[in-house]
Structures are given as C-alpha cells and as structure tokens.
Amino acid sequence: MPSRRSFVLLAVLLVWLIAPAANAQLQTFPKAELTIVSANGPHKFTVELATTPGQMEQGLMFRKSLAPDAGMLFDYRTPSMAAMWMKNTLIPLDMLFVDQQGRIINIHERAVPGSLDPIAATAPARAVIELNGGTAAHLGIKPGDRVIFPIFGNAS
In the chain, which stretches have pLDDT less than 50? Predict the structure, then answer.
C-alpha cells in the first residue's frame, strides 16, 4: 500500500506539472472577415488571426466550442511545409492548407482532439485555416478552391 509520503510527493509533482499551463497567459487574437469560394458559392467566415509565435503556438487550444462561421487563420508570411497538431485542442477541426495565391492545397478533415500526430501541408503553404470539424465537407470546400483575404493579394 502506498504511503502518505508517496501521495504527498505525487500531489506536489502534479501541481508542478499542471501549474505552468494554468498560469500561462492566454493570447488574444484580432479578427477579420475571410471568404472561401467553392463550386457552390462563397462562404464567409470571421477568423481570428494567429501571426505572432505565441498566437501560433496557442491557436485554438482550450476552446470548448467554435461558432459555425468562425475559424482561425495562421499566417506563416512565406510559404513553408506547415505542420500542425491538436495538442490541448478540445474540438475536432478541419485544417485547410493554403498557398501564396490563396488556393487550397489540401484539407485535413476532422482532426482528432488532443492528438499529437502531425498534420502537414502537401506543398508549401502560406497559411492554414482551421474551421469546425466537418465544415469543409458540409460546404463542399475542396482543394483548388479560392480563399479571398488580403494576405493572398486577392481581396477586393
């Protein structure tokens, strides 16, 4: 049977492991309008913008829900072989990898909450858009569709 000392040591260890996350300053994000044009028309979203290292690291972690027309845009500024994961993310997400011209390269649908498996672009991506899991299929959004947003030089 474990001793009282073992329980105390375990409790101290748990507090030591959990306290930094609990005390971490959550990032705030500016918002902007974004449109995805698919075969069945334009779809408008209000996205939070993750542009700083802290914002990009946090992303949609710890969120219990996301409005149906909401999402997050991660702007890498220059095309790169972007990779994401779902650490501390509580809701399933669709991840849309977008090239420099605003074309969707590939989509990872319904990423599993909490998974540490890497989710990667299949070609250099300027940005990643995260939407509620199932949104891409529901709206008919597919690779090759256009994202209209200022960073892609196609906003009008």
Answer: 6-23
Query: Residue 28 is which amino acid?
Result: T
Phi and psi of 51, rounded to 5°?
A: -125, -25
Q: What is the pLDDT of residues 82-114, one digit of tens each?
A: 999 999 999 999 999 999 999 999 999 999 999
Tokens of 123: 């070609």
- The b/e string for 25-42 (b: 16+ C-beta within 10 A; e otherwise) is eebebeeeebbbebeeee
Distance CA 66, CA 145 (A): 23
CA separation, residue 75 to residues 82, 98, 151 (Å) = 10, 10, 8
Question: Which of 87, 93, 84, 89 is closest to 47 using CA atoms?
Answer: 93
* Calpha distance 82→119 (Å, rounded): 8
Rounded to whole angstroms, the Cα distance separating 133 from 146 reads 19
Closest to 102 measured CA to CA, from 82, 129, 136, 81: 129
CA distance 106 to 77: 18
